Amino acid sequence: MPLEIIRDDITKIKVDCIVNPTDEYYSGLGGTDAKIYEASGPRLYEKCASLSPLATSEVCLTDSYDL
Quick one: which of 2, 12, 44, 63 is 20 to 30 A from 50 by CA? Predict the structure, then answer.
């Protein structure tokens, strides 16, 4: 598959997954992290709060909720 660069709102395009650039506490305080929480609704934040803290380089998978 060729590389394609898309400049758009990551929460509004059809994708298979979104990698959220957050901190270990899923704070949602700014940038892309905040926009993902805003678009997905409160259930994503609640789920992430139950998973924190997340160690550097550790990953987790959640549902997309309202995205």
Answer: 12
Alpha-carbon distance of 65 to 14, in angstroms, equals 14
Cα-only R_g, the chain: 13
Three-state SS at 25: coil
d(CA 29, CA 26): 8
Degrees (nearest 5) of the Cα angle 9, 12, 15? 100
